[in-house]
Amino acid sequence: MRVIGAAIGFGRRLVCPHEARAVRENLRYLGLGNDERTIEATFEAFGQFVAELLWGLHVGPQMIANRWRIEGMGHLHDLNRQAKGWILAGAHVGNWEHLGALADRLDRRLVAPTGTQLHPLLSAWIKRRKHRWGIDSVPASRGLRGLTRALDRGRLVALPIDGGSFRRGIGVRLCGRPVRMAAGAARLSRLSGRPIVPVFSTRTGFARQHVVIHPPLWPTSPAEQITQHLADLLGDHLRRARGQWCIFRPIERGEERCPAQ
């Protein structure tokens, strides 16, 4: 399967040279190393993601999660005593789609705003398979109030913190550099009163991940501070998972601020 993943990644890089340029510039800007091997590894990581996703749609969430090493599962068990749901905030590292298997372990359904999955010809089938395993895909444009109702019904809501489709991003520092980051998780948390649980994964083999679940962030701070905290966690993770961050568009850079005189 690694050979298949490598072939998929090589094909994407060959067909989409602008994406390779975006990866190079993103890594350079954030100081994560923009050498050719890291760029190649990023595309290979995407190919592995595709192969794992299609495999996981057949075997189901129990077999997926049984192959992981998980740190911090106790945080989720503690929250699971409450009737209402919470927000899982992750990033496009490791296999982010497979993190939905955590909901199955907790006997919860998961709501995930998504657009087209992999390809228009595959998207509807993928969403049907995910629904069968307890993951409900909703339009990426769905409002925060609709997601709040899902939390009230006990659903979990999965949101990426490095997503590119946002209307009101927040300026933060990622790996020490100014960027604008999606603030949907922080704003949903403030609106619903429900916590955010940051979850990041690192691929360690085919369909094998090291999953780290951080303590819940309750909405006691402004959305800007919550988003910065998530950016700090993401930056730390990216430094440990070089070559696995599958973002193929230029990240939105923020403005450098001069220190107060």
Give your account of this protein's structure.
This protein has 261 residues and is α/β, with parallel strands linked by helices. It has a domain at 61-240. Helices cover 45% and strands 18% of the residues. The protein has 10 helices and 9 strands. The protein has helices at 2-15, 17-30, 36-59, 61-65, 73-79, 101-105, 120-132, 144-152, 184-192, 223-240; strands at 69-71, 87-90, 110-114, 135-139, 156-160, 170-174, 177-181, 196-205, 208-213. The strands form 2 sheets. The protein has a 7-stranded mixed sheet. Strand 3 (110-114), helix 7 and strand 4 form a beta-alpha-beta unit. Helix 1 (2-15) crosses helix 3 (36-59), helix 8 crosses helix 9 (184-192) and helix 9 crosses helix 10. The longest helix has 24 residues, at 36-59. It is globular, with a radius of gyration of 18 Å. 39% of the residues are buried. The model has no long low-confidence stretch (mean pLDDT 92).
Count all strands and give the number. 9
- Name the helix and strand elements from N-terminus to C-terminus, one letter apiece: HHHHEHEHEHEHEEEHEEH
Strand order of the largest sheet: 1-9-8-2-5-3-4
Strand content: 15-25%
Largest sheet: 7 strands, mixed
Radius of gyration: 18 Å
Continuous helix count = 10
The termini sit apart by 57 Å
